[in-house]
């Protein structure tokens, strides 16, 4: 049961209490002062509430600004002022706080760009929010059972934290009976008995514990019912103490409220049990690796990867040397890793991607784009450049803020790890693949209220292919969810990946924008190098042109082009010439692209060369491109006699054959077959003869 | 460490490296040294492949370069090294653990690495990503048997290493060592694009005098040898040994067969092992013996240990091979052929019981002198299972020559089909 992370959904029903204050005819809505069922949760304006969101452990917090409904009374809504929990602030921005946040700290949300209308059904319950002065300290994090109180000190506008005025947080006068703990919202009358437990269960517990507890609750309740029958006073106390319990549809009318015999005691024991259950469950399943202080104790002797470990390569003991001359400077600039000031030759693609993402961010909608192109055509670089520019625009308030994350199919061990990485980069949470998928699904498909647009870059998309294609399906499906506000940019090498791999349902969702990056032409390559060198005069003009033309003809891969140039500067340095000229480039090209087969044949020993001759002779005799070692060996013996060399034995011949096979001049069968193994040439016969003749 | 490495270790660096010089790329040593130095000193990421046949000195070249570089403090204090071998790290999971262990990243306790495969990869990539050109210690990754890494699933490790080598992250140098000339073709196109395409080919075409010089250099004692007079005597004896006519012939034969270091060392080690206090020099006869040992045919040696019956069965198989032009045979056919010989020509041999012949046949199969034809089902009765002979005729004839007290009629029978 470890894999079922779904919670029993609690359905709440709210009704209006009191008469509408005013009605807005244009919007055909009524405004109410107070709503909610009598004797259950009452929600008022100005109150702080918890709202259902992606994360059951940390529901959204907000303050009710206004409550209203439509004319038919079907839809009940609330306008709220949002708070942000620590987990909702991007981990990178959390550093701005300059201290460790308190676990129950929240921030007054002042960023715009967020839907502040919520459905009444998503309100979980009221919550207490305390304002603390900027220099006040937080109370200790575990100070009892009613520790739902949240603390607010600062305001957050998605860029900076600010000191918050306490007047903004001030709650209205509290509930008529302030000593009461906030009671949970009503369960629907038709719910099964188990839902009573679950509706109360706001603890961060997964299914197994819930179920176990539900069972325990049943037992306890029946026992309580029995005792209640005997002890009406206790029943009375239970009733009176709470100022009215809940109706229990499943319980006989004779003892309707027996379950609330001693609610506090029950709550206590459940609380403790729930926590214990929590800790152990986390350790066992490893599903959510929160920094629970219990887990190391529960699993002694098994050191785990420290959660917040920051792995790093040690730093240098001696500083790195800076480039000292023109050639070294050029080499630094030509390294593929150096980020150029601008990306030449991809202006159109840049513009297209930029406007695509920008429009999605400003509209608050989602979408996806498929980018294809052979390796080394600047796909990832262009997208990164776009994101840099958009980030800059967001920083200067030209567009709403957004969240950019990036995954790469090649940088994970399994397609399903994509979920884990996305979740971790979004929320900093660690989870197993299945759990992460469930959480993400919920995050993107639920009409959760507040969200910045998320831009997700998926590099090497084809690696995320699975037989059921669910990873790819989700990546393309999530942006189509109305509330997801997700922009997915996918990159792969093949243009027809959508057609080849994404059958039916996936392909049908790809109402996507496509873009393909063409291999660079020689002029573009030349421009790329020139712009990278940026007036550092290290190359002759002809040399650059040669490199560009050569690479454009071969692949149009900019990386290749840069690598050749870099190698050419090294050769130039060795030959002590000032500028990189044609000869240096030629040598670099030769080194990188010339096949070594012919040289290898020329460098082989006399007998090995003779063996290759024998192979060809035997092929000609057989009229086939394949022969057994035994057949070739006969030819070899004959050739030895012709050449006046001492013939070699079979063992030696086999060893020779293996050597030629080892460097892949020959292709061989398994060496266990001995003299019976079949031999083929891995080079053309003409090449072999050419190499042997020139000798 | 092998004896060979030890022996090389006492050679001066220049000499050692000159031994692996090849005419193809005039200074592979220089190229590699410069490249690693730039990684260590400037923090420039690089990738390079050293390709050459087995025994060409690829590892030696790298060792020499590293030894030379470690003399410079700037390199010695900065460069971290990770050595992987495709034969040991058979998949990326194992390779990642080994890298993490050798780099002493945080998820290492003692020598044990914790975390799942996915976590390890994320961990390593995170660590490499955090670094940058000017502040992190550069890491040298040596991938021996590089071609085997290309067979790992998705080439994840190679992609990531090459990707880091082309990104503004921790400076790394990836040095692949492979004996396959077609190693680049094994790389997936994305991986290939990220590889810098620098290749150092170690292909040496030696002339015989050069080969002879090497032999002399390998046998020579260095000038700083403690016992000076012995060294002098020894070096003189080595010199005269190399001038001997029969030695020249033996070495020439070896040179024609293979020019690599390893076979030369195998030969010289056999000679050296015969040197003793009583006999403080290598004699030409030692070299001849060693050469004979080196080039001895293994199968012939095995045949010499067979019983006469087993030898007869081998001869019968040889005849069947001649008659049916290499078609496979079964035990029944071989036994019939053997019986024909007994009836017609034999005067020294008599017939054996069927089970005895059967046993001999099985023994031959165990020795892998014969092997069942591929795809012949195991259900077939033993006598009728089709077999092939894994010997060449020349090996059988040679074995018969060397077989102790081989009956003459059997020798004649073996030779008879040559008519």
From TrEMBL, chain A:
SUPFAM superfamilies: P-loop containing nucleoside triphosphate hydrolases. Residues 289-315 have a biased composition (Polar residues). It holds the Pfam family BAH. Signal peptide: none annotated. Residues 172-321 are annotated as: Disordered. The keyword Endoplasmic reticulum does not apply. Belongs to the ORC1 family. This is Origin recognition complex subunit 1.
Automatic annotation (TrEMBL), chain B:
One of its GO terms (molecular function) is ATP binding. Keywords: ATP-binding, DNA replication, DNA-binding, Nucleotide-binding, Nucleus. The keyword DNA-binding applies. Pfam families: AAA_16, ORC4_C. It comes from the Eukaryota. Residues 44-205 form the AAA+ ATPase domain. It is found in: Nucleus. One of its GO terms (biological process) is DNA replication initiation. Gene3D superfamilies: P-loop containing nucleotide triphosphate hydrolases. GO terms for cellular component: cytoplasm; nuclear origin of replication recognition complex. Component of the origin recognition complex (ORC) that binds origins of replication. Component of ORC, a complex composed of at least 6 subunits: ORC1, ORC2, ORC3, ORC4, ORC5 and ORC6. ORC is regulated in a cell-cycle dependent manner. It is sequentially assembled at the exit from anaphase of mitosis and disassembled as cells enter S phase. Interacts with DBF4. Interacts with POLQ. PANTHER family: ORIGIN RECOGNITION COMPLEX SUBUNIT 4 (PTHR12087:SF0). Belongs to the ORC4 family. This is Origin recognition complex subunit 4. It comes from Kryptolebias marmoratus (Mangrove killifish).
């Amino acid at each position: 049961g470890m894999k079922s992370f779904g919670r029993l959904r609690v359905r709440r029903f709210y009704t209006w209490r009191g008469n509408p204050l005013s009605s807005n005819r244009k919007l055909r809505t009524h405004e109410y002062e107070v709503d909610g069922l009598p004797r259950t949760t009452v929600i008022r304006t100005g109150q702080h509430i918890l709202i259902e969101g992606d994360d059951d452990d940390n529901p959204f917090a907000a303050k009710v600004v206004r409550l209203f409904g439509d004319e038919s009374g079907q839809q009940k809504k609330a306008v709220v002022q949002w708070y942000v929990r620590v987990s909702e602030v991007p981990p990178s921005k959390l550093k701005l706080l300059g201290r460790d946040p308190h676990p129950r700290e929240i921030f007054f949300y002042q960023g715009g760009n967020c839907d502040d209308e919520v459905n009444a059904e998503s309100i979980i319950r009221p919550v207490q929010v305390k304002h603390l002065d900027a220099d006040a300290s937080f109370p200790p994090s575990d100070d009892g059972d009613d520790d739902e109180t949240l603390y607010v000190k600062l305001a957050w506008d998605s860029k900076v934290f600010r000191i918050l005025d306490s007047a903004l947080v001030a709650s209205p006068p509290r509930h008529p009976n302030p000593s009461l703990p906030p009671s949970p919202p009503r369960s629907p009358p038709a719910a099964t008995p188990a839902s009573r437990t679950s509706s109360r269960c706001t603890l961060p517990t997964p299914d197994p514990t819930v179920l176990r507890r539900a069972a325990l609750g049943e037992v306890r309740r029946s026992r309580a019912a029995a005792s209640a029958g005997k002890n009406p006073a206790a029943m009375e106390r239970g009733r009176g103490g709470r100022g009215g319990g809940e109706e229990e549809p499943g319980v006989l009318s004779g003892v309707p409220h027996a379950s609330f015999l001693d609610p506090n005691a029950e709550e206590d024991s459940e609380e403790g049990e729930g926590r214990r259950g929590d800790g152990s469950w986390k350790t066992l399943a490893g599903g959510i690796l929160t920094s629970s202080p219990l887990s190391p104790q529960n699993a002694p002797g098994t050191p785990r990867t420290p959660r917040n470990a920051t792995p790093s390569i040690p730093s240098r003991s001696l500083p790195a040397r800076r480039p000292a001359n023109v050639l070294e400077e050029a080499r630094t600039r030509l390294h593929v890793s150096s980020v150029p000031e601008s990306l030449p030759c991809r202006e159109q693609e840049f513009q297209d991607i930029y406007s695509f993402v920008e429009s999605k961010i400003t509209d608050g909608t989602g979408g996806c784009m498929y980018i294809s192109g052979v390796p080394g055509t600047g796909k990832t670089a262009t997208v990164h450049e776009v994101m840099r520019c958009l980030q800059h625009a967001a920083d200067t308030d030209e567009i709403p803020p957004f969240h950019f994350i990036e995954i790469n199919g090649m940088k994970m061990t399994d397609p399903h790890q994509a979920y884990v990485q996305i979740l971790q980069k979004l929320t900093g949470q660690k989870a197993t693949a299945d759990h992460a998928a469930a959480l993400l699904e919920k995050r993107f498909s639920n009409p959760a209220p507040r969200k910045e647009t998320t831009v997700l870059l998926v590099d090497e998309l084809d690696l995320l292919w699975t037989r059921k294609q669910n990873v790819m399906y989700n990546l393309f499906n999530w942006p189509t969810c109305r509330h997801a506000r997700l922009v997915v940019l996918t990159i792969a090498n093949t243009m027809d990946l959508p057609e080849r791999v994404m059958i039916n349902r996936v392909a049908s969702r790809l109402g996507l924008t496509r873009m393909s990056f063409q291999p660079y032409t020689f002029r573009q390559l030349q421009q790329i190098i020139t712009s990278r060198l940026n007036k550092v005069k290290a190359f002759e003009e002809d040399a650059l042109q040669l490199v560009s033309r050569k690479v454009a003809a071969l692949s149009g891969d900019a990386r290749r082009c840069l690598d050749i140039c870099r190698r050419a500067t090294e050769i130039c340095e060795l030959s002590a010439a000032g500028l990189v000229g044609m000869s240096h480039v030629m040598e670099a090209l030769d080194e990188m692209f010339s096949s070594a087969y012919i040289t290898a044949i020329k460098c082989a020993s006399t007998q090995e060369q003779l063996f290759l001759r024998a192979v060809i002779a035997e092929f000609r005799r057989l009229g086939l491109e394949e022969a057994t070692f035994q057949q070739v060996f006969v030819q070899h013996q004959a050739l030895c006699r012709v050449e006046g060399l001492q013939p070699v034995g079979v063992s030696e011949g086999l060893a020779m054959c293996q050597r030629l096979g080892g460097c892949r001049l020959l292709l061989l069968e398994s060496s266990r077959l001995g003299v019976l193994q079949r031999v083929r040439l891995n080079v053309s016969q003409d090449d072999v003869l050419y190499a042997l003749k020139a000798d | 460490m092998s004896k060979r490495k030890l022996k090389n270790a006492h050679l001066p660096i220049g000499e050692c490296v000159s031994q692996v010089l090849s005419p193809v790329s005039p200074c592979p040593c220089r190229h590699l040294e410069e490249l690693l130095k730039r990684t260590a000193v400037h923090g420039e990421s690089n990738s390079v492949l050293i390709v050459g046949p087995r025994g060409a000195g690829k590892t030696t070249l790298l060792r020499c370069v590293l030894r030379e570089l470690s003399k410079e403090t700037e390199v010695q204090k900065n460069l971290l090294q990770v050595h992987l071998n495709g034969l040991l790290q058979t998949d990326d999971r194992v390779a990642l653990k080994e890298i993490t262990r050798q780099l002493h990243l945080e998820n290492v306790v003692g020598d044990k690495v914790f975390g799942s495969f996915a976590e390890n990869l994320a961990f390593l990539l995170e660590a490499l990503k955090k670094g940058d050109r000017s502040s992190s210690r550069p890491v040298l990754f040596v991938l021996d048997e590089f071609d085997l890494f290309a067979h790992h699933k998705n080439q994840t490790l190679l992609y990531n290493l090459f990707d880091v080598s082309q990104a503004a992250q921790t400076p790394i140098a990836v040095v692949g060592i492979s004996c396959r000339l077609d190693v680049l073709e094994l790389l997936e196109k994305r991986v290939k694009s990220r590889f810098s395409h620098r290749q150092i080919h170690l292909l040496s075409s030696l002339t015989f005098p050069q080969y002879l010089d090497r032999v002399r250099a390998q046998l020579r004692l260095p000038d700083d040898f403690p016992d000076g007079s012995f060294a002098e005597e020894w070096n003189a004896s080595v010199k005269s040994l190399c001038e001997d006519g029969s030695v020249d012939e033996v070495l020439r034969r070896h040179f024609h067969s293979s020019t690599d270091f390893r076979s030369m060392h195998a030969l010289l080690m056999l000679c050296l092992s015969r040197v003793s206090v009583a006999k403080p020099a290598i004699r030409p006869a030692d070299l001849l013996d060693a050469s004979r040992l080196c080039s001895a045919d293994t199968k012939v040696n095995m045949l010499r240990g067979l019983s006469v019956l087993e030898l007869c069965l081998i001869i019968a198989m040889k005849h069947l091979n001649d008659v049916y032009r290499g078609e496979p045979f079964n035990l029944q056919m071989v036994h019939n052929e053997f019986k024909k010989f007994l009836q017609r020509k034999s005067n020294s041999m008599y017939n054996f019981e069927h089970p005895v012949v059967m046993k001999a046949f099985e023994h031959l199969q165990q020795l892998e002198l014969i092997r069942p034809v591929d795809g012949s089902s195991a259900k077939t009765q033993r006598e009728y299972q089709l077999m092939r002979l894994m010997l060449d005729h020349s090996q059988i004839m040679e074995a018969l020559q060397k077989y102790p007290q081989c009956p003459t009629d059997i020798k004649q029978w073996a030779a008879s089909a040559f008519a």
